[in-house]
Amino acid sequence: MMNPEPEIRRLLDVMPASGRMATKLVSKPEQRLVIDAPLPMPWIGDRPIYINFDFWSCLPRTQRDLLILRTVSWLGTVKWFQPNLNFGLVAAGALGTGIELFQQDFVGVAAASALSAIAATQIWRNNHSTSIELDADERALQVAQRRGYSETEAAEHLLSAIEAVAQFEKRPLSFIELLRCQSLRAIAGLSAIGIPEELRRD
């Protein structure tokens, strides 16, 4: 069984400085996932990454390195406060909710809350889009190259890590994971077929 503390210190050294400042590694042996990073809420300072070190210890160091770099890279791509329609709707809904509460108009509260919730759900989907997921992989590969990996090695290790994690969690690969694997195979030179641009924009 792996002692989490030395591994956490090692992972912090692997992570980029921005990741060390923004994230917190937490041992969570009861979770069924190997590694989990919830979508960070804008009002929470630390971005926790939960790791089941019993599963984690079964992965080779190279796979662990790429998994942590990929998770940190994804957390770094999450954007809540962007000047776009969805953010405007969330803000308007929150403001409207406050006004309607003040006026004790509970029908208005329900309508404003629903508007805000719908927009927030769309922001959540945007942060799990295909383009965000693929960008996070590519950012992780870039950081890995500063840690001594070649791009093709890093892509191979991340590819094998994605597949190994699904096996540990006793589940099939999701559609987005299949797309990520195909993209990584192309980067690693294992496949001549990449991801079509129209899929990347989904």
Question: Would you give an account of this structure?
Answer:
The structure is a single chain. Helix content is 63%, strand content 6%. The protein is mainly alpha-helical. Strands 1-3-2 form a 3-stranded mixed beta sheet. Helix 4 crosses helix 7, helix 4 crosses helix 8 and helix 8 packs antiparallel against helix 9. The longest helix is centred in the middle third of the chain and has 21 residues. The chain is globular and about 40 Å long. About 8% of the residues have low confidence.
- Name the shape in a single word: globular
Low-confidence stretches: 82-97
Strand order of the largest sheet: 1-3-2
Helical content stands at 55-70%
Structural class by sheet pairing and helices: mainly alpha
Give a quick rundown of the structure:
By secondary structure, this protein is mainly alpha-helical. It contains ten helices and three strands, in the order H-H-E-E-E-H-H-H-H-H-H-H-H.
Q: How are the SSEs placed, and which strands pair?
A:
Layout: H1 4-14, H2 17-22, E1 23-27, E2 35-36, E3 47-51, H3 53-56, H4 61-77, H5 85-102, H6 106-126, H7 130-145, H8 151-168, H9 175-187, H10 197-200
Parallel strand pairs: 1-3
Antiparallel strand pairs: 2-3
Helix pairs in contact: 4-7, 4-8, 5-6, 7-8, 7-9, 8-9
